[in-house]
Specification:
The longest helix has 15 residues. Helix 8 packs across helix 10. By secondary structure, this protein is an alpha/beta fold. It has a six-stranded parallel β-sheet, sandwiched between helices. 55% of the residues lie in helices and 12% in strands.
């Protein structure tokens, strides 16, 4: 017996293609719509058995708010999240919001259908390989650029961060001093402190470390701060 479904995704063509494939397999697809402010309201109004809800960024804050709203208003609707390979945090956030499962965007239609049937029957629908990958990352976490950048930023003063940004931009001591309105000797001292705190031996190494960890992106625009 077919399942009453809704497909909601950022990419309308993907949503419509998935809806068409599910219709061919005997399911009743109520709608295929791109998410908007009223996406959750549409699902609530139509009350399908299962809703396939797409997201491109499962780790973004608030991305699963529609799931929360749907489950609050229509707890009988099983919500399956469609997304990229998620981090453990992404999977946890989806389930914490009330989702019944997580399916990769590139999953074969047979896998999507299995997830739909599990979700309708009240089971958690997550591919074993996704769980294995999540547990593997939790047990053996890889150093994340943002985490390393945050650690480095925490040991530098705002003024030292500005010095590092200028060093990465290729400014020499004279330009750093002129740009910050300080004496060249003071600029030179700041540079030496930055190198020491980062554990590197040269300006080139400091610039490379800042770029590799994503520190420059997190530092934001130049904004002189206190020493």
């Amino acid at each position: 017996m077919g399942v009453r479904l809704m497909v909601v995704d950022d990419h309308r063509l993907l949503a419509e293609a998935l809806a068409s494939a599910l219709k061919l397999r005997g399911h009743r697809v109520l709608a295929a719509a791109a998410p908007a402010a009223g996406a959750a309201d549409l699902v609530i109004a139509r009350a399908p058995e299962v809703c396939l809800l797409g997201t491109a960024a499962p780790a973004e804050p608030g991305v699963f708010d529609p799931v929360v709203k749907i489950k609050r208003e229509r707890p009988q609707v099983a919500v399956l999240v469609l997304g990229p390979v998620p981090s453990p945090r992404g999977i946890a956030a989806a389930f914490a919001a009330g989702a019944s499962g997580y399916v990769r965007h590139d999953e074969r239609i047979e896998g999507v259908e299995r997830a739909i049937m599990k979700a309708r029957s009240g089971e958690a629908a997550v591919a074993p390989q996704l769980l294995q990958g999540a547990f593997g990352e939790l047990l053996n976490p890889a150093a994340q650029p943002d985490d390393e950048a945050q650690r480095l930023l925490s040991v530098l003063t705002p003024r030292e961060v500005e010095v590092l940004v200028r060093v990465a931009d290729g400014e020499d001591t004279r330009l750093i001093a002129a740009g910050m309105g300080i004496a060249p000797s003071t600029a030179r001292t700041h540079v030496q402190r930055v190198l020491m705190k980062l554990g590197v031996g040269s300006r080139l190494e400091a610039a490379a470390l800042a770029a590799r960890t994503g520190l420059l992106d997190r530092a934001g625009p130049l904004n002189p701060g206190p020493d």
